[in-house]
Amino acid sequence: MRERIIGAILVVLYAIFMVVSPYNFYVSLVYLLGVGMVSELCNFTGLKNSKTSVIVIFSILFFVGVHVSHLSFLLPTAAMIFLFGYFVIIEGKVPDRFLAIAGFFIYLLIGTVAIGKLSKSYFVLLLSIVWSVDTFAYLVGKYFGKRKLIPEISPKKTVEGAIGGAVGGVIVSSIIGEYLGIFEVSLLTAFSLFVLTLISQIGDLVESYIKRIFGIKDSGTIIPGHGGLLDRLDSSISVAPFLVVFGGLQ
């Protein structure tokens, strides 16, 4: 428990540092997170010998990507998330390891670049969505959860927890979004936020399944009591591209 508290404090402090930093430094902090996630991906997929090359490729694409038009994220991100969602939830498998590695790298890249493109207010909104979904899903699942969601992928997740996470996420992010002046709450906004809470949970399931493919529990050990960066940022890299598009449409 002590380790988990320390890890949570470190995550919050890093997030605060990102919020108060000038934009260029904020992008650099996002980049460091991306490099960390790519490094973890290489470690647990057996690509340790190619890690430097993969990080160089990621670095080039990341810094090019932060200057790309907002709407360019929508189609590839939607395709990637729903492709993985289909295989994980419907088929219960990804065709082979190569597809899993290549697909997850693209998924990670697009999500990280999207976080780098967010304004500070939208970054706070992103955190409010992801953190509130996680918190409410955990609490509702712990005290009221009875029906397993997808036990072969994530044994502890429940249907009740998923619903609680979605509802709690919509409520909290609606309050935060209106407070920050991002939007005025309406049925359309609430529905959009609801979709984002579902995407957040799909992202979590995708990362859980990738870890099962490679037979690991955590993606890394960098965050005390919480595992790796991918374990903490899986939902964020899923939601961020859609949030970039959402912001461009406001």
Summarize this structure briefly.
This protein is mainly alpha-helical and 250 residues long. It has one domain (2-249). It is built from 9 helices and 2 strands, in the order ααααααββααα.
Task: Please name the defining characteristics of this protein.
250 residues; mainly alpha; 3% strand; 2 strands; 76% helix; two-stranded antiparallel sheet
Report on the architecture of this protein.
- The protein has helices at 2-20, 23-44, 51-65, 74-91, 97-117, 120-144, 159-179, 187-213, 229-249; strands at residues 148-150, 154-158.
- It has 250 residues and is mainly α.
- The chain has one domain (2-249).
- A two-stranded antiparallel sheet has the order 1-2.
- α2 (23-44) packs antiparallel against α5 and α5 crosses α9 (229-249).
- The chain starts with a helix and ends with a helix.
- The model has no long low-confidence stretch (mean pLDDT 86).
Give the topology, please.
Blueprint: H1 2-20, H2 23-44, H3 51-65, H4 74-91, H5 97-117, H6 120-144, E1 148-150, E2 154-158, H7 159-179, H8 187-213, H9 229-249
Helix pairs in contact: 1-2, 2-3, 2-5, 3-5, 4-5, 4-8, 4-9, 5-9, 6-7, 6-8, 6-9, 7-8, 8-9
